[in-house]
Amino acid sequence: MIPDLDELLASAIPFALPLRVPFRGVRVREGMIIKGSSGWGEFAPFDDYSDVRAARWLEAALEAAWGTWPTPIRESISVNAIVPAVDSTRAAVLAREAINDLGCTTIKVKVGSGLADDEARVVAIRDALDTAGVDGRIRLDANAAWSLEQAITSMRRLSQYGIEYVEQPCADLDDIVRLREVADISVAVDEVVRLATNPEELDLSGRVDYAIVKPMTLGGAHATVRVANAIGVPVVVSGSLDTAVGLSTCLAAAAALPDLPLASGLGTGALFERDLTDPALVPRNGHMDVRRYAPDLDALLSATDAVRQDRTKWWRSRLSAAYAEYARNLAH
């Protein structure tokens, strides 16, 4: 049974976790975790998310804390590592750590900061993979930074390095479809899915190669499975810079999908200096085990103590606004 707002606020614990490197402008990952009868859930929508979109994140947290997850059909998930938009030297270090320490042979790298910088970063990652002697794959994520013309130029330059796919190269879906045609490159969409008013009504068959589905932004594991079944193309389950608690939901979604052809984008724990678990939830031999991850007391106390008082107040207000939107959706 879903609690009322007062009960929810009483059980919600704010956290702040520093990152090893900035990730899309974020240096400290903040949010709240919530304890319910089923376990722990995570509510951590980014600051620029509207109340409507934050309500989906709350739905995922409530599902984890008081609900159930789909029946799993696998116990372990193959995952990729991620390299933010850092300089090429730092990219090489992160790539070597991903390969040697985490066992990841698929690496996603952020691009869109300028073609010269993008290429230097991709070259560093390709060199790290080749030096390690692994059959590695590189994914590019532009976060809709390119126009169609920029995307065509960039992909003609970068495709020589063995690219598995480019994720959300442009904001407009028609431009992405056009890029796929003229550049002969596999494309995936992210924002097209998670920003959709009704993601379950999307049909992308014949237009793109893959869809990125992020359970925390879609309303939880069950919602993610419904979207994956309806969207018409293979999906890649990805996180949203989640702690171990939030990644539990993502793993639950990935574990329940009958068709999971590629590595899931869940290796973001390596970007944290500290997690809510000790040690942090990171890939081992390129995989992550499917289970519920609960915070460790000492790690949670440290993460709670790091939250500024004004941010605690802000997160309580954020949770209240999302709950109001969630309740409104239920009423309809």
How is the largest sheet built, in terms of strand order?
A: 5-6-7-8-9-10-11
Runs with pLDDT <50, length 5+? Answer: none
H/E topology pattern: HEEEHEEHEHEHEHEHEHHEHEHH
Mean pLDDT: 96
- Tell me, briefly, the overall form: globular
Q: State the CATH topology of the largest domain.
A: TIM Barrel
Largest sheet: 7 strands, parallel
Helical segment count? 12
Helix coverage percent of residues? 40-55%
CA-based gyration radius: 19 Å
Beta-strand fraction estimate: 15-25%
Distance between the termini: 18 Å
Total DSSP E strands:
12
What's the CATH first level of the largest domain? Alpha Beta
Number of spatially distinct domains: 2
Per CATH, the superfamily of the largest domain is: Enolase-like C-terminal domain
- The CATH architecture of the largest domain can be named as Alpha-Beta Barrel
Q: How would you classify the helix and strand content by structural class? A: alpha/beta
Give the helix/strand layout.
Elements: H1 5-11, E1 12-23, E2 26-35, E3 40-43, H2 51-66, E4 76-78, E5 81-83, H3 88-100, E6 106-110, H4 115-131, E7 137-141, H5 148-158, E8 163-167, H6 173-183, E9 187-189, H7 191-194, E10 210-213, H8 215-218, H9 221-230, E11 235-237, H10 244-256, E12 287-289, H11 297-305, H12 309-331
Parallel strand pairs: 5-6, 6-7, 7-8, 8-9, 9-10, 10-11
Antiparallel strand pairs: 1-2, 2-3, 4-12
Helix pairs in contact: 2-12, 3-4, 5-6, 9-10
